[in-house]
Amino acid sequence: MLAAWMRSNRLQLNSDKTEFVWCIPPRRHHQLPADQLTIDGTPLSSVNTVRNLCVHVDNDLSMATHSTQLVNSCFAALRQICSIRRSLPRSTLSTLATSFIMTRVDYCNVVLAGLPQCELQQLQTVVNAAARLTAGAQKYDHVTPLLKDLHWLRVPERNTYKLCALTFRCLNGLALQYLSELLQPVSDLESRQRLRSSSTQHQLNWLCRACDDPRSATAPLLSPRLAHETVCLTHCTDCHHWNSSNLICAAGQFVTVKRS
Question: How far from the centroid of its chain's Cα atoms is residue 191's Cα?
């Protein structure tokens, strides 16, 4: 089916480079089918990690491989910038750190929402090192004043900010249509209209595109507090004169984001 779909869209599938992963917890490995998957007559073996658009996905969805690869690439770029830091003014160092470090940290960072603090702390060390390099601070200097001076959010708040911005655009018709269709208030779901939360209009639900079943949603579910902040901004802010500082205020409140 996959090969036929790609041929119908004038795409060619390279079976030799095609990989797939079973996203299933270890306690359910015994439920995996014993039959081998084949595409165009080529047998495929499952792997523990796959990469798509430079995002590494583990079979247990822990994103540990992605975090490790991201940290390694960021520190490699930091070492190169550090070798020329004495020849550059601070403004240029800030531009380089933003272009080569912070853009990597922010790339597809929504997939990191809801990860344990130990995983996010690895990325926070990258942000701290970039801030100290930009400010010319020492290794053990307190990093909080440096982040405030650079107007940089911490990693958990950067992820929350991205979710808030994405939700805001979906609710106001500023996002792509397929994303706006996936985001629905709980009050619009027949199976949840009897819940007490359906009358508040502060809870949002991401629907699975394949089956429209909220229980099988693959995107992170927004917590009630995060949805409340975003919905309030939707009703109180003019879409045509929207300022991202409003969402930064919502993102800075250490909101808990749940994963399905």
Answer: 28
Q: Select from 118, 152, 186 the last residue of a domain.
A: 152
Please enumerate in sequence order all residues whose Cβ is within 8 A of that of 159, keeping only pairs 6 or more positions apart, or say none. Answer: 109, 110, 112, 113, 120, 257
Residue 75, domain extent: 64-152
| pLDDT tens-digit series, residues 177-217 | 888 777 766 666 666 666 665 565 555 555 544 444 443 34
Name the domain boundary from 133, 152, 171. Answer: 152
Give the closest residue to 229 by CA, choosing from 164, 176, 182: 164
Q: Taking a C-beta distance cutoff of 8 angstroms, is the pair 171, 234 a contact?
A: yes
Count how many domains the chain has.
Answer: 3
**Structural tokens at position 35:** 């039959």
How many CA atoms within 13 Å lie on the side-chain side of 126?
26
Nearest to 247 by CA among 236, 227, 233: 233
Residue in 221, 253, 250 with CA at minimum distance from that of residue 233: 250
